[in-house]
C-alpha cells in the first residue's frame, strides 16, 4: 500500500510539474533576496566575473536573449510571480531598464555567487546580503514616494519576501578553501550555526522594516550538482553524499528557526521553502518529469562549465535543454525551475495567501 501511495505521489507531481499554476490571490508583490538561484541580472551592473548576460544563457527566455539569469530561460521566482497572478518575470533592482513602477509588483536584489557569509560574497566581489538589505531600504523609500505611505506599506506588509541563499557558503567558500579561514575557524556544524544566525538576523531585519510574509529557502541536494558529481572521481561520479548530508542538516536548522520565529515575532507569517526533496526526486526518477539527463548539464560538456566557460564552449551545448535537469554545472534548467517553483507554491507558499 505504501508503494502505491508513493508512486501515486510521484505521478501526481509529474503531472503537476507540467502546469503553470495561477493562484487568484491578493499578493501585491514578490520581493526577492539571495544568490544566482534568484538573480535576474543584478550582477550585470557590478564589476564581477560572476555573470551570465551572454549566450548561450537566456536562449529560451522571451526574445531568446540573455538577461543575467543563470539559466536557459526563467528562474524559479519568475514562475512563482506568474503563479501568484503577477508578472511572468521579476526584474533586477540594478537594471536601469526598470523603475519603481515595475518594482512595485516585483523586484529581486539577489546577486549570483553571494552567501549569508560576507566572506562568500568577497570571493567574486558580488553583492553581500547586508547590502541587499540596504537596497531594500532604499526601495521602500522609493515605493513610498511613488505610491504614498498607505499603499506602499500595504505592499510591504502583504508582499511575499523570498530568501534563496546558502549553497555558495559551502561550495564556494567553506569547502573550496581547505585550510582556509572558515574551515579552520569552524567545524561544519558550527559553520551551519553561524549561517543560521545570519539568516535569523536577516529575517528579523525584514520584520523590523514591515515585512510579514516571508519565505526562507533551504538548500538543494548540492552534492548532486554536475560540478560536484564530475569531480567525485573516487565516488564513481555519483552525488557527493557528504554535501547532501550538510544540506539536510542545515535545512533542519532553518526549519527549526522558522518555527521559533513564528512564535517569537507577533504577526509574522514565516514559511520554510525546502527544495531538497522535490529536487532529489527529479534526480532519482527523471523520466517521471520528462527528463533524460541528470549527471551532466546542457551547457558545453555539461561537466564543469558555468558562466564564461559556457560561452567559450557553447558549440557543445545541447539542443534541447528540456531533457536536462541542469543547464550548467551548477544551475538548473528553466524546466526544472518551473517544477520546483510550482511545487513550492502548491506545498508551501499557499500558507502566505
Automatic annotation (TrEMBL):
Signal sequence segment: 1-25
Family assignment from sequence similarity: Belongs to the 'GDSL' lipolytic enzyme family.
Keywords: Signal
Record flagged with keyword Signal: yes
Organism lineage string: Eukaryota, Viridiplantae, Streptophyta, Embryophyta, Tracheophyta
A GO MF label: hydrolase activity, acting on ester bonds
Protein name stated in the entry: GDSL esterase/lipase At2g04570-like
Superkingdom field: Eukaryota
Coiled coil regions, renumbered to chain: none
CDD domains: SGNH_plant_lipase_like (cd01837)
Amino acid at each position: 500500500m505504501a508503494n502505491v501511495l508513493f508512486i501515486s505521489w510521484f505521478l501526481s507531481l509529474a503531472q503537476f510539474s507540467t502546469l503553470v499554476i495561477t493562484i487568484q490571490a491578493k499578493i501585491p508583490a514578490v520581493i526577492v533576496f539571495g544568490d544566482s538561484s534568484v538573480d535576474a541580472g543584478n550582477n550585470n551592473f557590478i564589476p564581477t566575473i560572476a555573470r551570465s548576460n551572454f549566450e548561450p544563457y537566456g536562449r529560451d527566455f522571451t526574445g531568446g536573449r540573455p538577461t543575467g539569469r543563470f539559466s536557459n530561460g526563467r528562474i524559479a521566482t519568475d514562475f512563482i510571480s506568474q503563479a501568484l497572478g503577477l508578472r511572468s518575470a521579476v526584474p533586477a533592482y540594478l537594471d536601469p531598464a526598470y523603475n519603481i513602477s515595475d518594482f512595485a509588483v516585483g523586484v529581486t536584489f539577489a546577486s549570483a555567487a553571494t552567501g549569508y557569509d560576507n566572506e562568500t560574497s568577497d570571493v567574486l566581489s558580488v553583492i553581500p546580503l547586508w547590502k541587499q538589505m540596504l537596497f531594500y531600504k532604499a526601495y521602500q523609500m522609493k515605493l513610498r514616494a511613488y505610491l504614498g505611505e498607505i499603499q506602499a506599506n500595504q505592499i510591504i506588509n502583504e508582499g511575499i519576501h523570498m530568501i534563496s541563499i546558502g549553497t555558495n557558503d559551502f561550495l564556494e567558500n567553506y569547502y573550496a578553501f581547505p585550510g582556509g579561514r572558515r574551515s579552520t575557524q569552524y567545524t561544519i556544524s558550527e559553520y551551519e550555526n553561524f549561517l543560521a544566525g545570519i539568516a535569523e538576523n536577516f529575517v528579523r531585519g525584514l520584520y523590523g522594516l514591515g515585512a510579514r510574509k516571508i519565505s526562507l529557502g533551504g538548500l538543494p541536494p548540492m552534492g548532486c550538482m554536475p560540478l560536484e558529481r564530475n569531480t567525485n572521481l573516487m565516488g564513481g561520479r555519483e552525488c557527493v553524499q557528504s554535501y547532501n548530508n550538510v544540506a539536510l542538516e542545515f535545512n533542519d536548522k532553518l526549519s527549526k528557526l522558522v518555527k521559533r520565529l513564528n512564535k517569537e515575532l507577533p504577526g509574522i507569517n514565516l514559511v520554510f521553502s525546502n527544495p531538497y526533496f522535490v529536487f532529489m526526486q527529479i534526480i532519482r526518477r527523471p523520466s517521471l518529469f520528462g527528463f533524460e539527463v541528470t549527471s551532466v548539464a546542457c551547457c558545453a560538456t555539461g561537466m564543469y562549465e558555468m558562466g564564461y566557460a559556457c560561452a567559450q564552449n557553447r558549440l557543445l551545448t545541447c539542443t534541447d535543454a528540456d531533457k536536462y535537469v541542469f543547464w550548467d554545472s551548477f544551475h538548473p534548467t528553466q524546466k526544472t525551475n518551473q517544477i520546483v517553483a510550482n511545487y513550492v507554491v502548491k506545498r508551501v507558499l499557499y500558507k502566505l495567501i
